[in-house]
């Protein structure tokens, strides 16, 4: 593997000492000891201007981070840490198209996917923006043809159903975006998503659909992914059981990929292939051609609005001083809890049903990016890296796991996401929904004391059970209404927060070597499952026994 030596050396130079021995880090560790016992109640009482001071607006989003366990001094120390660990220079290196994905020797330019036509982003010495717009224009032409009914299936009927076949980055973004923007989508068309190699996923996705009205988008950067290719072949078989003639495949399959040769080999006309580039990581690709299903659902105009939201947050991230930079602040607060308070997780709690897949999407974005334990210069870290992100839409979570967040033994920082207006106004529903956002954040921060519980007439023996310790931190992110622009800003906010964390940890947030070993073993075991029942196995005793058991049951 060729490693970009200049980046590696530059980064190693910036991090000329292990993170934990860095003065900024040690100052934070000392400061944390003084702050650990301070209550949010006190911090608010001592500082009447706190709520105004720790809030921020950017790219259509409002962030209230005043209910975090920090003071102005904490933030100053965190900004110092960001500066001293080179967050700003690494950010510039990304925007400049330098190969900051050192282990794959690639630029990291998802920001170019949402560039304006007149912008310039350079990879390998050439401006990539014209190619980005060329693909976007082809996608728009295609989407318009399908949406207008001009694109016809093999019987001459228009397309009514679109199925995206992909996995990981080629699935989670499209599913999330489709769900999030369902309000803006074509209601007379059906959109489904197949990712799992479990045949159930495919069977349910095509259930009830007419092949002659169904279009498959095979979304795979490499066009070699086992799950996706297996599902794509099953899709072709499903179509041809009705259509008979393989020539009909062309009307029902398009591809999103960087691998034209494999697309052609599958039988898809490369005229109907939408490309992207090796400088786009899978989990950063929902706004590339991987978003074709999104564009088919909401139309090119709304897709353009989505890109504009991403772009607005990119601009903010690149230009705002750290002290006023929303993704930087969110990333630093994540580091604060992860590395100084020992928090293991961050809960993301969207109070909007349309964002029901947002936590699942974020799981990949955050954990595939920062779930690493080796630094850019090849050393084992001696500090925690990326926290676990998880969540569920409110208010459902309140009736399930919020108990642990309020009264459990773990400190779980929460991100609440809410909207001032609903896309589906219905009586008092929205006011009640939002009342819950504000109430939860308040309850977590300020809790309820023993005196308050007693004053309600609670018997003494029950009092301890009804106390809420409080002092549990949260962000509240508000936007006016869930538009395509807001969705773009929100995703970019988390992308850049992940970037900030990864830059501080000194890791490569853009590779994913940790998924390789399982793939290799599965390939080998897959072949062994078909071998004769008594043929030898050379795994560990547990794996051997499991394979034998499965072989017997299968036989
Ligand atoms: C994301 C990862 C991974 C990838 C899938 C699908 O950053 O690279 O989740 O998106 O493995 O890969 P293909 O698009 O190549 O099928």
Task: Characterize the structure shown.
The protein is an alpha/beta fold and 555 residues long. 47% of the residues lie in helices and 10% in strands. The strands form three sheets. It has a six-stranded mixed sheet with strand order 1-2-13-12-10-11, with helices on both faces. The protein has a five-stranded parallel sheet with strand order 6-5-7-8-9, with helices on both faces. It has a two-stranded antiparallel sheet with strand order 3-4. The protein starts with a helix and ends with a helix.
Map the helices and strands.
Elements: H1 5-14, H2 23-35, H3 40-46, H4 50-53, E1 55-58, E2 61-64, H5 72-84, H6 87-95, E3 122-123, E4 126-127, H7 129-148, E5 161-165, H8 172-180, E6 190-194, H9 199-206, E7 214-219, H10 226-243, H11 249-252, E8 253-257, H12 260-266, E9 273-275, H13 292-319, H14 326-340, E10 345-350, H15 358-370, E11 388-391, H16 402-407, E12 414-419, H17 429-446, H18 450-455, H19 463-466, E13 474-479, H20 484-505, H21 516-530, H22 541-554
Parallel strand pairs: 5-6, 5-7, 7-8, 8-9, 10-11, 10-12, 12-13
Antiparallel strand pairs: 1-2, 2-13, 3-4
Helix pairs in contact: 2-5, 5-14, 7-13, 8-13, 8-15, 13-20, 14-20, 15-20, 21-22
Q: How are the strands of the biggest sheet laid out side by side?
A: 1-2-13-12-10-11
- Please give the number of β-strands: 13
The helix/strand class is alpha/beta
Uncertain stretches:
9-16
Alpha carbon gyration radius: 25 Å
The outline comes out as globular
Span of the ends, CA to CA: 43 Å
Which molecules other than protein and nucleic acid are bound?
A: glucose-6-phosphate
Strand content: 5-15%
> Main β-sheet, in a few words?
6 strands, mixed
What's the mean pLDDT score?
95
Number of helices: 22
Q: Work out the oligomeric state of the chains in this entry.
A: single chain
Secondary structure: helix percent? 40-55%
């Amino acid at each position: 593997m060729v490693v970009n030596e200049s980046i590696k050396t530059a980064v190693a130079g910036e991090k000329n000492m292990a993170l934990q021995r860095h003065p900024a880090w040690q100052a934070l560790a000392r400061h944390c000891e003084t702050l650990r016992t301070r209550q949010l109640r006190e911090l608010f009482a001592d500082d009447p201007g706190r709520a105004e001071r720790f809030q921020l607006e950017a790219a259509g989003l409002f962030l209230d981070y005043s209910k975090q366990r920090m003071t102005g001094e904490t933030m100053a120390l965190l900004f110092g840490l960001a500066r001293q660990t080179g967050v700003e220079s690494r950010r510039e290196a990304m925007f400049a198209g330098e190969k900051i994905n050192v282990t794959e020797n690639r630029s990291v330019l998802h920001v170019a996917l949402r560039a304006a036509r007149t912008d310039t982003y350079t990879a390998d010495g050439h401006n990539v923006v014209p190619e980005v717009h060329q693909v976007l224009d082809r996608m728009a032409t295609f989407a318009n043809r399908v949406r207008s009914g001009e694109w016809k299936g093999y019987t001459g009927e228009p397309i009514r159903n679109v199925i995206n076949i992909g996995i990981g980055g080629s699935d989670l973004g499209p599913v999330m975006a489709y769900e999030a923007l369902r309000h803006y989508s074509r209601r007379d068309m059906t959109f489904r998503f197949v990712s799992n190699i479990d045949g159930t996923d495919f069977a349910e996705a095509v259930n009830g659909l007419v092949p002659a009205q169904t279009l498959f988008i095979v979304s795979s950067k490499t066009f070699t992914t086992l799950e996706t290719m297996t599902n794509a072949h099953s899709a072709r078989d499903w179509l041809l059981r009705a259509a008979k003639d393989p020539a009909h495949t062309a009307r029902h399959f398009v591809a999103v990929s960087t691998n034209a040769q494999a697309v052609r080999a599958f039988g898809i006309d490369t005229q109907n292939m939408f490309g992207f580039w090796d400088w786009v990581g899978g989990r950063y690709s929902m706004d590339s051609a991987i978003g074709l299903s999104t564009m088919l659902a909401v139309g090119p105009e709304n897709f353009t609005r989505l890109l504009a939201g991403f772009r607005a947050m990119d601009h903010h991230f690149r230009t705002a001083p750290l002290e006023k930079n929303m993704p930087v602040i969110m990333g630093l607060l994540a580091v604060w809890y992860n590395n100084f308070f020992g928090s293991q997780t961050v809960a993301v709690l969207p109070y909007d049903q349309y964002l029901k897949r947002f936590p699942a999407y974020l799981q990949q974005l955050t954990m595939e990016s920062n779930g690493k334990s080796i630094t850019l210069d090849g050393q084992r870290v001696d500090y925690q890296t990326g926290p676990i992100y998880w969540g569920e839409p409110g208010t459902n979570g309140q009736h399930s796991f919020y108990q642990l967040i309020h009264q459990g033994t773990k400190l779980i920082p929460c991100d609440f996401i809410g909207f001032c207006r609903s896309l589906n106004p219905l009586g008092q529903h929205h006011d009640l929904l939002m009342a819950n956002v504000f109430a939860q954040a308040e309850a977590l921060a300020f809790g309820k004391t023993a005196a308050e519980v007693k004053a309600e007439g609670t018997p003494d023996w029950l009092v301890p059970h009804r106390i809420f310790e409080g002092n549990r931190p949260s962000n509240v992110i508000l936007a006016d209404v869930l538009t395509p622009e807001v969705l773009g800003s929100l995703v970019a906010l988390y992308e850049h927060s992940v970037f900030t964390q990864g830059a501080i940890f000194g890791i490569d947030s853009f590779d994913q070597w940790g998924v390789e070993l399982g793939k290799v073993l599965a390939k080998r075991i897959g072949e062994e499952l078909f071998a004769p029942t008594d043929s030898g196995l050379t795994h560990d005793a547990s794996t051997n026994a499991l394979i034998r058991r499965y072989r017997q049951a299968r036989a």
